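Listing S7. Sequence submitted for prediction.
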Amino acid sequence: MAFTKDQPKDGDTILHCGHLGRSAAYRPPAHWFQFKGSAEFTRPDGTHGKAEWFAACEPCFVKHGKKVADFPRGDAIWTGDAPTIVKDEN
């Protein structure tokens, strides 16, 4: 494995499936997607945002495949600039 060339940067908004980090006991790997441009979204409270990244847990990725990024369940602000996203070599 190697770190991906592109990573979210400190302060970037990311979208996610809603399951990442829910349980300290169960931490499946995350699958990362980078949108071409920014994805615009609306939160349940009516506010709007833009994100370039989406992260999905393993069960969501297995269930939905690459279409998982079409169903964001939440957003978060990325903190830190440490390279954490790795690219699996096939």
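Caption to Listing S7: primary sequence and predicted structure tokens for the chain studied. The mean pLDDT is 84. The first strand starts at residue 2 and ends at 3.
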